[in-house]
Design brief:
Shape of chain B: elongated
Structural class of chain B: alpha/beta
Number of domains of chain A: 1
Helix content of chain A: over 70%
Order of helices and strands of chain B: EEEHEHEHHHEHEHEEEHEEHEH
Number of strands of chain B: 13
Low-confidence stretches of chain A: none
Number of strands of chain A: 0
Low-confidence stretches of chain B: none
Shape of chain A: elongated
Structural class of chain A: mainly alpha
Largest sheet of chain A: none
Number of helices of chain B: 10
Distance between the termini of chain A: 28 Å
Oligomer: heterodimer
Mean pLDDT of chain A: 91
Radius of gyration of chain A: 20 Å
Strand content of chain B: 25-35%
Strand order of the largest sheet of chain B: 5-6-7-3-8-9
Distance between the termini of chain B: 39 Å
Mean pLDDT of chain B: 90
Helix content of chain B: 25-40%
Largest sheet of chain B: 6 strands, mixed
């Protein structure tokens, strides 16, 4: 147990002794702040009639976004999740790239312990990224909502449950990043996969899957959809309101955990416990 | 003072596909001595050391420290310090935080970090990012990592590569000091001359197999002694040698006679009335003996 705790502590030190974590955290804050603040302004302007209903392009449909605060706050995970994945993948592939597996395994020869410690560490730091993202979406987004006179629901239990589930989701995404890193140790390939999958492949798959009832159910098990189910709100659900009923929040969480575990276990066998040359 | 443990390789073999990188390698390394682990590049030195340290899995055989495999050591860094050839650093980390990470992992006091950086002469560069280090500084940082746990056993892969002359002199003294304190010191090199001044024992491998082991002096096998002899009247000298039944070849600086006895040649020439201009025993160097052992210098 002490070996495990030391390993966790060393993994924390690894993250915080390079610049990557705060660069990513800063971009995350600005990106989510801009999106959540900007869209909070747009949506509440429409909902409160600051923008004249006549000017709104409704395509004949109603202009009802439902309750705005959860939608705005969920930007922290529905858009921000790529950051903990990147951090997790870079933390793992960096060990291969810079050959730091050698000193790591010399100090802690139990490789499974090291990988478990890395996963636990990244889950916690991923949750930390969740705090940064929520500071942007709830802090800035909520501020903008209040400025437009929309109730930011900051005293609502539901809001704080959403915050808690967002932290969990961001932690799990970081664990998926670690799993991806051992599955694809090549750093460039890993980054390309993260960006291509999260920014293009998955959104398109979710859209395509939503057209048929059968595929819509399968689409719910895509990691991004599972994450949105866990958090309980997402901009993707207003963009595409016709899909199958999403998973329960806990089901979404289990699906995310499953992705992380499967990737990590396969990656452990495929790269982590192989010869370090 | 930490005490050294005996390093024991027992029938270690390692195959990469059909290629045998190491084949049935067995030897021991004693504490209190510096042992040179020698062989041409590609002989299997680094693979053997990585097997010893649990970084590479042997196809068969075991390698232990005092009977314990590396991965089973209760306090690996306090028992064995290793510096391997590869530059294993994150370039964005400072030397101090690099060592700090592993001090935490091994449960060592953080004060050790500056102690070892001072010991290897990097204290002034402790807060500098490793990406800006020269090759020699990286070698020293690797050594600092090996010393972190004040271990009784040191395993160093090509520690002299990339050091400047001052650094080479420093590390030679350092290796001697470590052994004098009773530690086990195993140092690999592809050049015997590089470590000849600091090693007590040698283990020589070629093509993954043990070809020689013993004290350094045992390498100096003078199997085919030669004496260089020359005369202003070289033809007459050659005839004299032939008449005496001594075979010779013609070298750049005279005749290379197949004998280790210059006095005998001198007497022969004196009796034949041949004037000599050169007469000296050809010294076969350590490096030549080493090359003969490992089968020629093609890979050097």
């Amino acid at each position: 147990m002490t070996v495990f705790l030391r390993s966790v502590s060393a993994e924390f030190a690894k993250i915080f002794t390079t610049r990557l974590w705060w660069i990513l955290a800063m971009i995350l804050f600005c990106y989510i702040g801009l999106l959540a603040g900007g869209l909070a302004a747009l949506f509440s302007a429409i909902q409160t009639g600051v923008i004249s209903p006549d000017a709104v392009n409704t395509g004949g449909g109603p202009t009802n976004f439902g309750s705005l605060p959860p939608l705005i706050y969920s930007f922290a995970s529905s858009v921000g999740y790529v950051f903990p994945v990147l951090l997790g993948a870079l933390a793992t592939t960096g060990e291969f790239r810079h050959q730091t597996l050698t000193p790591t395994f010399l100090a802690t020869p139990r490789r499974g312990v090291v990988l478990a410690a890395k996963t636990v560490t990244l889950i916690l730091i991923g949750a930390g990224f969740g705090i940064v993202a929520l500071a942007a979406s709830v802090g800035l987004g909520g501020g903008v909502l209040s400025a437009f006179g929309v109730d930011a629901l900051l005293l609502d239990t539901e809001t704080w449950l959403l915050v808690a589930r967002t932290l969990l989701a961001m932690g799990l995404w970081a664990a998926i990043g670690v799993g991806l890193g051992v599955l694809v140790p090549n750093q460039v390939a890993s980054i390309v996969i993260v960006l291509a999958f999260t920014q293009f492949v998955e959104p398109l798959l979710r859209l395509a899957a939503s057209f048929l009832e059968v595929t819509a159910k399968i689409g719910n098990f895509l990691p991004g959809a599972a994450s949105d189910a866990l958090v309980g709100a997402s901009v993707f659900t207003i963009a595409n309101p016709v899909g199958a009923a999403p998973l329960n929040w806990w089901q979404g969480g289990l699906v995310l955990l499953g992705y992380a575990l499967v990737a990590t276990v396969i990656g452990y066998a495929a790269s982590w416990k192989k010869d370090v040359t | 003072m930490p005490t050294g443990a005996v390093i024991e390789f027992t029938s270690i073999s390692k195959r990469f596909g059909a290629v045998a990188a190491v084949n049935d390698l067995s030897f021991t390394v004693e504490p209190g001595r510096v042992t040179g682990f020698l062989g041409p590049n590609g002989a299997g030195k680094t693979t053997s050391l990585r097997i010893l340290l649990g970084l590479v899995a042997a196809s068969s055989g075991t390698a232990t420290f005092g009977g314990v495999r590396y991965r089973d050591l209760p306090h690996p860094l306090k028992t064995v310090g290793a510096a391997l050839e590869a530059a294993s650093f994150h370039p964005g980390r400072t030397a101090r935080s690099h060592l700090g990470v592993y001090a935490i992992a091994a449960g060592l006091p953080r004060t050790r970090v500056m102690e070892v950086l001072t010991q290897v002469g990097l204290a002034a560069h402790a807060a500098q990012r490793v990406g800006g280090y020269s090759l020699g500084m990286r070698q020293r940082l690797g050594l600092a990592y090996a010393l972190l746990g004040d271990p009784g056993v040191l395993v160093l892969d090509e520690p002299i590569n990339g050091l400047d002359p001052e650094g080479i002199r420093w590390i030679r003294g350092f290796l001697r000091d470590m052994a004098a304190e009773g530690r086990t010191v195993l140092v690999s090199s592809h050049l015997l001359s590089e470590v000849a001044q600091s090693v007590d024992d040698v283990v020589i491998i070629a093509r993954g197999e043990l070809v020689h082991r013993g004290p350094l002096s045992s390498v100096d096998t003078d199997a085919a002694p030669q004496t260089i002899v020359d005369s202003p009247d070289r033809e007459n000298l050659a005839a004299t040698l032939t008449a005496a039944g001594i075979s010779f070849s013609i070298g750049r600086t005279g005749l290379l006679a197949a004998t280790g006895d210059p006095a005998m040649l001198g007497h022969l020439a004196f009796e034949a009335g041949v004037e000599l201009s050169v007469l000296h025993r050809q010294k076969v160097g350590l490096e030549d003996s080493f090359l003969a052992l490992v089968g020629g210098g093609h890979s050097l």
